[in-house]
Design goal:
Mean pLDDT: 93
Strand order of the largest sheet: 2-1-8-9-10
Radius of gyration: 20 Å
Helix content: 40-55%
Number of helices: 12
Distance between the termini: 21 Å
Shape: elongated
Order of helices and strands: HEHEEHEHEHHHEHEHEHEHEH
């Protein structure tokens, strides 16, 4: 039994005080959310269910560098794609003045703006491939005959590429990073779970949900089924329910969305 829960009066005014929340993002992307949880009085356990590394073979990046001027639009699937692609490209040449950039999600948009790109094409409502494809800049009229390069990790959804090709665009993939399941001690989660000390599990990737099952094993995953899950997309929420979690709360995107949902739930 936990004995360190906040009192009802403190919980009402500061819902995260005394709460232990598991942040499953890659380590490079976890700090901002963890700091905000801790600033709100909570405890953040870092348990990355995905790890990010440069592409093991840079051949695609090497080949695209001299050809960037051929393209009309560059799409980055994530902040990781932006970081790994631009670190490689900009060490070798300047970004073509006429090559517009696009991405999905406020986090990726912020990274592009910090890198000096003006007016990136980003959906203002929604944060997935479907939202990108609904933009006027990705309509059939806009992309027919255009050349698009997509910077991404190894694998992932093909919806944007396939749809743009159906709409008449010429699309190429460039793999600039890889995702993998990091080796972690399952006890980092299972021991506090056995003591009843976990208040929430924050899941921000469908692949990460699957990795979690592999990292913990069937018995370990069952031990977490009673912990509320906060999932930042409908697909992630569906994956979590499929994995057996009993309480799954879908949240808006980003740190703000997760923290708003946590505050509502624990308030």
């Amino acid at each position: 039994m936990r004995i360190d829960k906040p009192s009802a009066s403190r919980e009402k005014s500061a819902p995260l005080v005394g709460r232990t929340l598991v942040v499953t993002r890659p380590l490079e992307q976890a700090d901002s959310l963890c700091r905000r949880i801790e600033a709100a009085g909570g405890k953040a356990i870092r348990f990355p269910v995905l790890a990010i590394a440069p592409a093991p073979d840079p051949a695609q990046l090497e080949a695209i560098v001299p050809r960037l001027d051929e393209f009309d639009l560059a799409f980055f699937v994530s902040p990781n794609a932006i970081h790994h692609a631009l670190e490689f490209v900009l060490a070798r040449r300047a970004w073509p003045a006429g090559l517009r950039v696009a991405t999905v999600g406020k986090g990726s948009e912020r990274v592009l703006l910090q890198r000096g790109f003006r007016d990136p094409v980003v959906p203002q409502d929604g944060f997935d491939s479907e939202s990108v494809l609904a933009l006027p800049e990705f309509s059939a009229e806009a992309v027919r005959g255009r050349r698009v390069v997509i910077f991404r990790g190894d694998g992932g959804r093909d919806l944007i590429r396939d749809t743009l090709r159906e709409r008449g665009a010429h699309v190429e993939y460039v793999t600039c990073y890889r995702r993998y399941c990091p080796p972690l001690d399952p006890g980092l989660l299972l021991q506090p779970a056995a003591r009843g000390e976990l208040d929430a599990l924050l899941l921000t990737s469908s692949e990460g949900v699957r990795n979690l099952g592999g990292m913990l094993g069937a018995a370990g995953l069952r031990a977490l089924h009673g912990v509320p899950v906060f999932a930042s997309h409908a697909r992630i929420a569906a994956e979590a329910r499929e994995a057996g979690f009993a309480v799954v709360i879908e949240t808006p995107a980003g740190d703000d969305g997760l923290l708003q949902a946590l505050t509502r739930h624990f308030g």
